Amino acid sequence: QRRVHGGLGSNGSMAYHCLALRRLQFSAFRVPLQWRRSFTSRGMQTTEDVALSPALNVRLSERKDPAHSTAAVALLTEQMLTQEAANPRSWLKPFMTAPMMEDFNAKAGKSIWVYGSEVAPRVLLVGMGSGDKNLRLAVRNAAHSAVSQLRQRKIKSAGFVLGGDMMTPEHIKAFTQSAVLSNYTFSLKTKQGDDNGCLPLMESLDILCSDETQVSTLTSAAQQARSIAAGTLLARDLANTRADTATPDFMEEMARTIASKNSLALTVLKGSRLQSEGLRMIQAVGQAADSEPRLLILEYRGNASSEETIALVGKGVTFDSGGLNMKPTGSIEDMHLDKSGACAVLAAMQTIANLGLKQNVIGVLGLVENAVDSKSYKPYSILKSHKGLTVEVGNTDAEGRLVLADAYSYVQKTYKPTVMIDLATLTGACVVALGEYCGGLFYNDETLATDLNAAAVEAFEPLHRLPIMSEHSAELKSPVADLKSTGKGRYGGAITAAAFLKEFVEENTKWAHLDIAGPAMFSEPRGPVNKGGTGFGVALLAEYLLAQQKSSSSTSK
Question: Catalytic residues, which ones?
Answer without folding.
Answer: 327, 401
